[in-house]
Design a protein that fits this description.
alpha/beta, about 40% helix, globular, disordered C terminus
Length: about 270
């Protein structure tokens, strides 16, 4: 029961026999995959993939590095897509100062749009953060709805203080293969402190392959097992317990029926979020 909450299945690396690859990942224990979008075209591709495979779900949104080309018309086109039966999350959105692909004020604008749409729709938003930890916290602080957020800190690599603040806002913390890298002791210590009901795992495939496959490309959803096993070790839990916990957390967050896996009607309630 391994739910990969962040994979870019519309990337070119997966276009050669995607059905065969997904079948192989399922045979290796992958119970669900969120195909994460980066712009409008990517959103449509992710939805198309999710329509074909019952274990795959889709997000809808604009990655901060793609916001330069995004238009208000595209945003209005995107908004109705979140009602699609296979769309269970928004994004990935967020902020990125590592690359100079998009003016920072435009990234903030689209980040705030995703957050607002999350509060309106009840869908969780996926946060990309790179070299802008304080700026990201500032946006989340001023965008809170009664002090709560329904969001995921994707491929978390921030500080303990940032993790604690996001937990206070009701957010989920997701760990990728980076937590397995030998030198990331500080990140593993943070992972150890995350409450079990806020913990998610992901690959960010086709990137961020986990140890000992760090030099292998592409990363695949099947390799999320190594991230889960690493979390089990540092948290002194069994692998089966981490597998089950993170799978249940993902299905609860994405509003999926635990038996059929279908998207349920839902609305985010800040008062009820822990």
């Amino acid at each position: 029961m391994l739910f990969d909450t962040h994979a870019h299945l519309d990337s070119r690396e997966f276009q050669n026999d995607l059905p065969g690859q997904i079948d192989n990942w399922i045979q290796q224990g992958v119970s669900g995959i969120l195909a994460v979008a980066t712009n409008l075209d990517s959103t449509l591709r992710c939805i198309s993939i999710a329509e074909r495979f019952p274990q795959v779900y889709a997000s809808a949104g604009f990655h901060p590095n793609y916001c330069r080309e995004a238009t208000d018309e595209q945003w209005q086109t995107l908004k109705p897509l979140i009602d699609h039966r296979r769309v269970v999350a928004l994004g990935e959105t967020g902020l990125d100062k590592y690359r100079d692909d998009c003016p920072f004020d435009r990234q903030i604008d689209f980040f705030e749009r995703h957050i607002q749409l999350s509060h309106e729709s009840g869908l969780p938003f996926i946060v990309h953060m790179r070299d802008c930890e304080q700026e990201m916290l500032d946006v989340l602080q001023r965008s809170t709805d009664k002090g709560r957020h329904n969001g995921i800190m994707h491929s978390f690599c921030g500080s303990q203080a940032t993790a604690d603040r996001c937990l206070e806002w009701g957010m989920m913390i997701s760990f990728s293969g980076m937590v397995t890298y030998p030198r990331n002791d500080e990140l593993r210590e943070i992972a150890r402190t995350i409450p079990g009901d806020r913990l998610l795992i992901e690959t960010d495939a086709p990137w961020l392959s986990p140890h000992p496959y760090r030099k292998v490309r592409p990363n695949t959803p099947a390799l999320v097992r190594h991230t889960a096993e690493c979390l089990a070790m540092i948290r002194h839990e069994t692998c089966d317990a981490i597998f089950a916990t993170t799978d249940a957390n993902a299905r609860r967050l994405f509003g999926l029926d635990s038996i059929s896996g279908t998207k349920q009607d839902r609305a985010f309630s800040p008062e009820k979020s822990r």
